[in-house]
Amino acid sequence: MKINGAAYRSVWVDSTDGRSVRIFDQTKLPFSIVTLKLETVDAVAHAIVTMQVRGAPLIGAVAAYGLALALGVDASNESLERNASMLAETRPTAINLRWAIERMLAKLRPVSPEDRLTAAYAEAGRICDEDVAQNESIGRHGLGLLEEIAKRKAPGEKINILTHCNAGWIATVDWGTALAPIYMAHDAGYNVHVWVDETRPRNQGAALTAWELASHGVPHTVIVDNAGGHFMQHGQVDIVIVGTDRVTSRGDVANKIGTYLKALAAKDNNVPFWVALPSTTIDWRVADGVRDIPIEERAASEVTTVTGQTGDGRIESVRVTPSGVNAANPAFDVTPARLVTGLITERGLCAASADGLNSLFSEQERQ
Question: Tens digit of pLDDT for each residue in 186-201?
Fold first, then answer.
């Protein structure tokens, strides 16, 4: 995707040294575009924990490069295992992180220490390239859903899409998941409009999704998190498309807190609720998402304070609750499969169910 006309991925190896890793500092967006140079595995872990880098597919890719950085210092078996475990623990909910680390370990364990560094960078690069291809394919399959909506409307009539959190190119290596079909529909000339949930408490919708869509020229409107049901009741939402951090083998979906409420409202108003994901987000070892997906609990300060830009351009954080109050901050919730219309994957569309997933990924049935 592009920023000010220049094409970027969300993670890349620095061309000046061929070793360090560059990312956009997502905590600075949308008010400033800052790239970070990550030179150590500890810097990568810090970036993931503090959400300087976020988005399930992207943190997996960045963690893969983090392991490569660690091997540049010490390529021993002990270093490989220790740093892999450390990276895997940085955030608990998004399965892509664990998937990427397990894939790197499977590739690197049989490799001699003297050859591991080269192999690690090569494998991390393949993970990134595959993510881009998967997300582009998700976009093509999701585009069909928007084209079907357009057929039911008058020529040029607006297609209203609601999304929650940020599942665009800044959350992946490129293209995004939930936003990929929207970009493709816009580029194909369809009159798309996106309702962008602000997505408290970190405002990834208001900050990141709105910034992405504005950069691409896609019409959109930021709304408060609790407004989605109202717009559905009044026929102003044609489809909901969200991303996800983990999908179970039977189709339960973990996504940013508040997604479950959107799915309930969509069900009540007969609005299709679709979830876009690469297969790397499927956790084939878990069936019951509500029971078994670990939900990250983040700092109460994310709820009790907000950060924004003042009229004179300063970035400030201010308290929005009385001093000394307690705040709970679960970062994700789980939407049961019964509320999900279907899943958009790189292999096509399917029902949010074990049978639906196995119809596209039959090789998993044999494992």
Answer: 999 999 999 999 999 9
56 is in an annotated binding site: yes
Instruction: Kindly report, residue by residue over 60-98, the tens digit of the pLDDT.
Output: 999 999 999 999 999 999 999 999 999 999 999 989 999
CA 165 vs CA 23, 125, 177, 190, 333: distances in Å: 20, 27, 12, 23, 12
Q: How confident is the model at residue 367 (pLDDT cuts 50, 70, 90)?
A: very low
Contacts 24+ apart (CB under 8 A), 80-87: 80/105, 80/108, 80/109, 80/116, 81/105, 83/41, 86/41, 86/45, 87/41, 87/44, 87/45, 87/48, 87/63
How is residue 89 written in tokens? 């623990």
Rounded (10°) CA dihedral 171, 174, 178, 180? 160
- Binding site annotation covers 262? no
Catalytic amino acids? Answer: 245
Angle between helix 95-108 and helix 56-73 axes, rounded to 10 deg: 40
Q: Is the pLDDT of residue 102 over 50?
A: yes
Is 9 marked as binding a ligand? Answer: no
**Cα separation, 75 vs 112, whole angstroms:** 9
- 3-class state of residue 125 by DSSP: helix
Out of 3.40.50.720, 1.20.120.420, 1.10.220.10, 3.40.30.10, the CATH code matching 2-130 is 1.20.120.420
255 labelled binding-site residue:
yes
Predicted confidence (pLDDT) per residue in 220-255, tens digit = 999 999 999 999 999 999 999 999 999 999 999 999
pLDDT at 25 over 80: yes
256 is in an annotated binding site: yes
CATH architecture of 141-366: 3-Layer(aba) Sandwich (3.40)
- Please tell me whether 116 is known to bind a ligand: no
3 state DSSP class of 14: coil
Whether 4 shows a pLDDT value over 90: the answer reads no
**pTM, 2 dp:** 0.95
